[in-house]
Write a structure and sequence with these properties.
globular; about 20% strand; 7-stranded mixed beta sheet; 8-stranded mixed beta sheet; 3 domains; FAD/NAD(P)-binding domain; about 400 residues; D-Amino Acid Oxidase, Chain A, domain 2; 11 helices; binds flavin-adenine dinucleotide; alpha/beta; single chain
């Protein structure tokens, strides 16, 4: 006999907890499953942008003043360790440890009245019979099922045979180093191919990482080694951990009928910045709202159409991000791009406002190509006359 719920959510990261909280607030009965008991570790820079902060407040009622975050407005851009630019009045970035952050969101889902099954492993999914078997022999019936089980999504594999596309996926390596007396967020735009390096200060540590398109970075551990050496943290290399992230592609059809995919399971990571927490929370909320509407209309199978339509603006943004990713990271424009960032405070601020969710990709594209083209010409001219040092960003 299956235990029945209106909504079953598989995975309790930011996406799954957001879906569970939203569905419970709509008055639906909700089961929330995770293969881990909480608190659990999750490899992540833990950078919470202004965009993510807004979703946290809307969905969870969680404010940034909480003890979970270190907030900084100071950003340093570098290229293989060489300083490019410093910004002291950036939009706020909030850094958190995912172990505590995710446990808090999971706790808020519990408080909202969802029934938690964790640790538990999901087994066979039967969308037609609306039934999910669990590895321990139990079964759950559902009106709508939301797959929020991350990059290696079991639910995506059950639906489509694979959880992500190896050709487009990114990979990242990270270590936790002792905290420093410096609250600068650092972004190294040349630490990996089609990616970057980061130093994110936290309350009790400093997260150092490098990541980029997986197939373009066969020696990522070596890149991390260089990056750690620049920060005097060479000794940490042996303890590094790695994980894939879907920062190159997203599923244009994230689900089918009564089964919806959200967050990393749907590939919703920004290909340029690697940001995924905000999109995870938003997509979790949208999927739960779609479930609520479809169930109210008496047909959980209608949930996918409603969800896909609601996701269209985010898909549009990610398409634009992908276009810009090719320009920013592509071989031809990468060096001129570093020069533009070094020389143009307005460009630095626009990038940081994009990250904070104050601008969208359409805003960024306005004038971007013109500026880049001008600087490309200036760079070439500088090379000819020897008056432009691209790597150090010194415009003649
Ligand atoms: C190294 C690295 C650095 C990153 N840095 C940032 C950053 O600074 N800022 C940012 O915004 N994003 C960052 N990201 C991306 C961000 O971590 C993800 O986009 C985000 O965690 C996605 O949330 P999610 O809820 O979809 O998935 P997850 O957070 O991965 O949660 C999935 C949940 O599902 C559970 N689960 C997995 N498999 C199963 C299963 N078979 N059955 C049941 N449960 C299962 C897991 O235990 C987990 O609780 C980074 C990613 C990486 C890898």
């Amino acid at each position: 006999m299956a235990q029945n719920f209106d909504v079953v959510v598989v995975g309790s990261g930011p996406a799954g907890s957001a879906a569970a909280v939203t569905a419970a607030r709509l008055g639906l009965s909700v089961a929330l499953l995770d293969r881990a008991a909480f608190p659990r570790e999750k490899l992540c820079g833990g950078g919470v942008t202004g965009r993510a902060a807004r979703h946290l407040a809307e969905v969870f009622g969680l404010g940034i003043e909480e003890d979970l975050f270190l907030t900084s407005r100071r950003v340093r851009f570098t290229a293989q360790g060489r300083p490019l630019a410093e910004v002291d009045d950036a939009p706020a970035l909030h850094m958190t440890m995912r172990r505590e952050f995710d446990a808090r969101l999971h706790g808020l889902a519990l408080e909202a009245g969802v029934e938690v099954f964790a640790p538990v492993k999901p087994g066979a999914l039967d969308p037609a019979r609306r039934r999910l078997d669990l590895a321990d022999g139990r079964s759950l019936g559902f009106g709508v099922l939301i797959g929020a089980d991350g990059i290696n999504s079991h639910i995506a594999r059950q639906l489509f045979g694979q959880s992500f596309d190896p050709a487009t996926v990114a990979f990242a390596l990270e270590v936790e180093a002792p905290p420093r007396d410096d609250d600068h967020v650092e972004i190294d735009l040349d630490a990996a191919c089609w990616g970057y390096g980061w130093a994110f200060p936290k309350c009790e540590s400093l997260t150092l990482g490098v990541g980029g398109l997986h197939r373009a970075n066969p020696h990522l551990k070596r890149n991390l080694g260089h990056y750690l050496a620049q920060h005097g943290a060479d000794g940490q290399l042996a303890g590094c951990k790695g994980q894939f992230l879907p920062a190159g592609d997203f599923r244009t059809r994230p689900g089918r009928g009564p089964v919806l995919l959200v967050g990393d399971a749907a590939g919703l990571v920004d290909p340029l910045t690697g940001e995924g927490i905000a999109h995870a929370i938003l997509s979790g909320r949208l999927a739960a709202e779609a479930a609520g509407q479809a169930l109210a209309a008496g047909d959980g199978g209608g949930a996918f159409g409603i969800y896909r339509a609601a996701l269209a603006p985010l898909h549009g943004e990610l398409r634009q991000a992908r276009l810009l990713q090719r320009v920013v990271f592509g071989r031809l424009m990468h060096r001129p791009m570093l020069a533009v960032i070094a020389a143009r405070p307005s460009m630095q601020h626009r990038m940081l406002r994009l990250l904070a969710g104050e601008l969208d990709y359409a805003d960024i594209r306005k004038g971007f190509f013109l500026r880049l083209a001008r600087h490309g010409v200036a760079t070439v001219a500088g090379r000819v006359t020897g008056r432009h040092n691209v790597a150090a960003g010194e415009s003649a």
